Amino acid sequence: MIDPKTAPYAILALRVTTGALFLFHGLVKVFVFTPAGTVGFFESIGLPGALAYLTILAEVGGGLALILGIKARLVSLALVPVLLGAAYFGHGASGFNWSNPNGGYEYPLMWAVVQAALAALGDGALALSPTSREPRLAAARA
């Protein structure tokens, strides 16, 4: 049974944590690898270079939106293909285990499932723009 008193806060914790991780990964692509370096990597694995910019935008923008609770359901759903692409194109050749050299697809695949679950669960507590019709404040006050 789902506890309506704590569930919105559990979703909030998951939303903020995954948002922070997306933001971190996007900023690493900007400030460590640089956008040009990220483009080069994407092209080296056979992806269009422009997809690197879209990935950076998805990670930084999506991370901020999740942290703030702005259209979190839609953002979570939109990030699933990004993660599946990372699992297949970025880590697929390295096998399943994340601790394999160059990282396996285990971690981005798990993250894709988490984002799909967040899309199904709703926005949780303290969302700035809830996308579902469930009463947030009533559940948070109870």
3D architecture notes:
It is found in: Cell membrane. Keywords: Cell membrane, Membrane, Transmembrane, Transmembrane helix. The chain crosses the membrane at residues 12-33, 45-67, 74-96, 108-128. It is a multi-pass membrane protein. This is DoxX family protein. This protein has 142 residues and is mainly α. It has one domain. Helix content is 67%, strand content 0%. It has six helices and no strands. It has helices at residues 7-31, 35-44, 50-68, 72-90, 106-121, 136-141.
| Uncertain stretches of 5 or more adjacent residues | 137-142
Counting DSSP H or I runs of 4 or more residues, the number of helices is 6
Report the order of strands and helices: HHHHHH
* Number of E strands: 0
Pfam family, one: DoxX
Membrane topology: Multi-pass membrane protein
Subcellular location: Cell membrane
Transmembrane segments: 12-33, 45-67, 74-96, 108-128
Please give a quick description of this structure.
This protein is mainly α and 142 residues long. The chain has one domain.
Which labels suit this protein?
142 residues; mainly alpha; 6 helices; disordered C terminus; transmembrane; transmembrane helix
Tell me the layout of helices and strands:
Layout: H1 7-31, H2 35-44, H3 50-68, H4 72-90, H5 106-121, H6 136-141
Membrane topology: Multi-pass membrane protein
Protein name: DoxX family protein
Family: Belongs to the DoxX family.
